[in-house]
Amino acid sequence: MSSARPRRIRRTASSDRTARLVLAVPAALLAAALTACSGGGAAGSAAQDGGDDKAPETEISVNHQGEAAAPGKPVKVTLAHGKLKSVSVTADKGGTLAGKISADGRTWTSERVASPGTAYTVAAKDADGGSDQAAFTTTEAEKVNKLSLAPGKNTTVGVAQPLSIVFDHPVKNKAAVEKGLKVSTSNGTEGSWGWLQDYSGKDRVDWRPEEYWKPGTKVTLAAELNGIDTGADGGWFVRDYATTFTIGAAQVVKVDLDRHQLSLHRDGEQVFQAPMSAGTPGGDKASWRGTAVLMSKEGTINMRSETVGLGDAYDKMVDYSMRLTWSGMYAHAAPWNSGYFGNANRSSGCLGMSDANASALYEQVRVGDPFEITGADAKGTVAEGNGYGAWNVSWTDWQVKSALK
Predict the structure, then answer these.
(1) Which residue, 60, 172, 237, 381, is most buried by CB atoms nearer than 10 A?
(2) In angstroms, rounded to a whole number, what is the distance separating the alpha carbons of residues 103 and 328?
(3) Residues with Cβ within 8 Å of residue 188, at least 6 apart in sequence
(4) CATH no. for 9-138
(5) In the CATH scheme, what is the code of domain 251-392?
């Protein structure tokens, strides 16, 4: 026992069942203190060796421990004496939990929570050079929630395309989920999340600006959801998500149901116009009015009336199909209806044009372009969950749909 070991932190048990790490005094000082207890000359020797200058014992506690730690909470490391120099929390699945040391140096708290089914290693150093590691593992998630994102990663979309997230399972803890959704833009565009029910019946949240996007805006979503509990029947998120997209040219398709005309405007100038025939008014075959956003360009597809609740009215292969709603409203070629183009609405709900005009429009529009549909010959306004109908909600009413308002 003639030479002192380096100072280090050692783990001891505690009554509150947190993992406790204890910084031991140097071995030489410990030996001297034990000798002093035996009395006699040994006590004087201990004093000469600096036994009376023994540093206070330093203790660190971690609020997670063992093999069944609860997920969904930040990791907190607390120092009993002295100051923390650094703390790292590393997950076995890769990545670390970032955190901050408090102003007094006594505690470190992770910025994000511990994820289910993950083993973590905590490495702590104090200002005096002591160090050690602790470890804990969180319990597995009984149910996992997942999501789908739109638009796709690294795509270029129209000025009306919202960020849209549909969840596999119900989301009751909407505020906790929304806090993890970080939107950034290249030009400081501000917007708001709004919770709604998707046409599929699933929970969904969309992010849109007050007005259409500015062309050239780059948008990034970092969905930092790993470790978030979505609530009863929803389950946990066990990963993060991300997407990035760019806003293309300012294009708007204007549809006048009463005049039976469709036109494309780019940067405020009309660049295309075509006569068309929309849905037959007065019933389920009528078209929707309001702003519908081009969801997808699907080319040639088979359209069957029974899929939209219209019996056996039609079963056709349709060219240049441009989806506008989940309920089945498209803009497309409809040569069989040519006698009505420009003078009457006699379709089963879609916006029909000649082959040539449908082809020309199909080539120029992109996903995310708004179709602004006006006129009396409609069955109602596009609902917010029937495709991307958020633009039919006032900005004030849309902001109220945020779980953080």
Answers:
(1) 60
(2) 58
(3) none
(4) 2.60.40.3780
(5) 2.40.440.10
Long-range Cβ contacts of 35-39 (<8 Å, 24+ apart): none
Q: Which residue has the tokens 């994000």?
A: 112
Select from 328, 248, 326 the least CA-distant residue to 286. 328
Per-residue pLDDT at 304: 78
Tens digits of residue pLDDT in 169-191: 999 999 999 999 999 999 999 99
CA distance 9 to 5: 12
- The per-residue pLDDT for range 312-351, each reduced to its tens digit, is 767 889 999 999 999 999 999 999 999 999 999 999 999 9
Q: What is the 3-class SS of 152-194, one letter each residue?
A: CCCEEECCCCCEEEEECCCCCCHHHHHHCEEEEECCCCCEEEE
40: pLDDT strictly greater than 60:
no
Domain ranges of the chain: 9-138, 147-248, 251-392
The CATH class for the domain spanning 147-248 reads mainly beta
* Residue 351 to residue 257: CA distance in whole angstroms: 9
Query: What pLDDT, on a 0 to 100 scale, did the predictor assign at position 7?
Result: 37
